[in-house]
# Entry
Amino acid sequence: MLSPFAVQAKVEVYEFSDPAMEADYKQLNSELRCLVCQNQNLADSNAELAQDMRKQVYEQLKKGSTREEIIDYMVTRYGDFVMYRPPFKATTLMLWLGPLFFFLIAGAVIMSFGRSQKKDHIDLTEQQKNKAHSFLDK
Amino acid sequence: VSRYFVLGGFLLLMGVFAVVLSKMGSGEYNPRNIPTEFIGKIAPEISVPDLFRPAETVRTSAMRGRVWLFNIWATWCPECWREHEYLMYLADIKGVAIVGLNWRDEEDKAKAMLHRLGNPFIQVGFDPDSRAAINWGVYGAPETFLINAEGRILVKHTGSMTPAVWDKKFKMHFDQGENTL
# Structure
């Protein structure tokens, strides 16, 4: 039987004497993206590269690097892409605001449809009305 | 009027869709191609043991003054087997200096592959725990970098090295580099 423990056992365990450092380690692993399995962060991934990157994070924390320094190290090597939550800046503007933009377009289209449908009655001339009546009265 | 507005919007979206699709067709916007921040920057230093002489260290800084390729490969990577023959051609016939980095591999298998297919590398670093690979922003194999005499990275290619890739991305830098030496 496969149990959740069997899966967890694959992830290496690092010992921390300092709980703050351990918290940093966990936070970094949740913020950094696994580059092989792109919709996972480092914490969730069993890929070998992710494993080695966790090791790097661990070793750099042990050496006294701060959270920012480690993120910086990864971003200069792998780009903003390595951040599971990309930073809000000029190059990622479309990423953050694109969905909102399309949502607004969809809203505008729906609104204009609703309005045009309401206006959809036709003004008939007296002659046309009589003609219509003559058809209906038959 | 609103009908034209809707039609216009539709055509615009169609246009965006078509452009993205054609770009994807020509190999762009591939989510697997992670953009590198390295182009134009000084290559990171590595010091890893030499695959064949473990007592010696392979350092990227030792290549200063030469135009060279840095090729990340492994025996578990099928594309690496595929590109090997062309790397041999580049090294033996074209005289290109290639430093290899054997990544996340087993020593015996790596040596056996080079014995069987030939060794195109002037040096091969052995990097079983990705220490050097992560330092170079590597996320797959094969990857090939071109570094100029000054030690700056000019090109990064992910995937197999082929004659077409060489002509399109590498050749001109190499020619220029040769002339300035």
Notes: Helices of chain B lie at 2-25, 78-92, 107-117, 131-135, 163-180. The longest strand of chain B covers residues 97-103.
